[in-house]
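Why should sequence recovery work at all? Because a backbone constrains its sequence more than one might expect. Tight turns favour small or flexible residues, buried strands favour hydrophobic ones, and helices have their own preferences. The token representation captures these environments compactly. In the example below, the structure is given first.
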């Protein structure tokens, strides 16, 4: 059994806002959420800017008892999921709840709680740490809390593949629904990496920009860390239409693979292979794609190799393609980045708009792709969203308009 898969709800929390409409409005305006990091002493950290969800107040969403087992990353996931479910207006029977899946992604899990525990033990010499530290820091905390809140008893797990975590999660949830292993799925990713220990670790890697994220631009000088969560509700298209749900877009394909190349240096060949696998899974040719939401980290290595992969795969329709890099707006939210990018991509399909890449200075000949620098209308029936993680783990999603897929033969993988 193979079924078309609809997206009927989206939700997100990010530096651009605490709801999907706020997020989307900031994306359209090209309004970057990157600003000075706050909340703790940044003395001794070489970079000072990040993309924090400053407006998020957990007390507005949870009572004190609910917060006891929840790290910030899990709080973000739950709030985004509630928004997505409210938009989807799902009403599940007991039998349907037994076949409802939750698949989430996170790179770090409960880093805030982990850092606090280490500080208590090693800096403050406290003999005991918080008794809920383990439930708080486990990467599946958000997914598990959602099963309790919703009563869903189907497949539930969390994926941790560095910066591709959310795309891997969404892709696997998509396959569950498409092949009849689940009747509905809640999927996405969340991350809360703003702790002193985490920032010092990224500082040591020397890939973080001292000012802002400039994907594909000459003069770019690194990524900017972000936080947040993005969640999507997936269900079979025929079920969504039968119950009168609003279909935002469809997921049409998913491709994943490994570079088998280097732990931190990306491979253009590996990225291109994941793109081709995703197109083959969607049964679309490169010419059917109108927009690429790029991984676009703003680092020297990623942007050059990703540009080469895009030129390789889309050589025949570069003039009809638009590339955007939304990390210039919401920062690099690690395991949640792909989820935020998925929300931006599907809302772009729904609105037939392409969001701008912010902070651009000037063209880099090594990043010769048709980059969108100003928000614009764009009549596109399909889009891809790229994620290429440390460790060489690549994951690409293909989304299509609710009006139907573009017609094209199955592409070759050669």
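From this structural description, the recovered sequence reads:
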């Amino acid at each position: 059994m193979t079924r078309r898969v609809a997206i009927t709800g989206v939700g997100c929390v990010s530096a651009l806002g605490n709801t999907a409409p706020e997020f989307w409005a900031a994306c359209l305006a090209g309004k970057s959420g990157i600003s000075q990091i706050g909340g703790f002493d940044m003395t001794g950290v070489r970079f000072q800017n990040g993309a924090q969800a400053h407006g998020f107040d957990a007390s507005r969403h949870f009572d004190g008892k609910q917060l006891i087992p929840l790290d910030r990353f899990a709080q973000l996931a739950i709030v985004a999921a509630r928004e997505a479910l409210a938009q989807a207006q799902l009403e599940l029977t007991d039998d349907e709840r037994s076949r409802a899946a939750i698949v989430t992604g996170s790179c770090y899990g409960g880093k805030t709680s982990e850092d606090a525990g280490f500080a208590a033990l090693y800096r403050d010499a406290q003999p005991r740490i918080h008794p809920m530290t383990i439930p708080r820091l486990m990467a599946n905390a958000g997914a598990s809390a959602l099963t309790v809140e919703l009563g869903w008893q189907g497949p539930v797990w969390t994926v941790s593949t560095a910066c591709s975590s959310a795309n891997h999660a969404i892709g696997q949830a998509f396959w569950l629904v498409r092949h009849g292993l689940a009747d509905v799925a809640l999927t996405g990713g969340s991350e809360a990496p703003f702790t002193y220990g985490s920032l010092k670790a990224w500082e040591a890697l020397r890939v973080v920009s001292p000012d802002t994220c400039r994907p594909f631009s000459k003069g770019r000088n690194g990524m900017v860390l972000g936080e947040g969560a993005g969640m999507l509700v997936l269900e079979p298209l025929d079920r969504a239409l039968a119950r009168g749900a609003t279909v935002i877009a469809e997921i049409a394909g998913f491709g994943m693979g490994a570079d088998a190349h280097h732990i931190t240096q990306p491979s253009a060949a590996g990225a291109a292979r994941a793109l081709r696998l995703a197109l083959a899974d969607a049964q679309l040719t490169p010419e059917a794609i109108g927009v690429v939401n790029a991984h676009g980290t703003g680092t020297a290595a990623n942007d050059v190799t990703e540009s080469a992969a895009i030129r390789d795969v889309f050589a025949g329709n570069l003039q009809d393609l638009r590339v955007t890099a939304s990390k210039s707006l919401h920062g690099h939210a690690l395991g949640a980045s792909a989820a935020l990018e998925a929300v931006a991509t599907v809302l772009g399909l729904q609105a037939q708009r392409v969001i701008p890449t912010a902070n651009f200075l000037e063209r880099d000949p090594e990043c010769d792709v048709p980059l969108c620098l100003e928000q614009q209308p764009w009549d596109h029936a399909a889009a891809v969203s790229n994620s290429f993680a440390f460790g060489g783990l690549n994951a690409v999603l293909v989304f299509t308009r609710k009006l139907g897929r573009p017609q094209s033969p199955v592409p070759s993988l050669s």
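A few observations help interpret the result. The CA atoms of residues 9 and 85 lie 6 Å apart.
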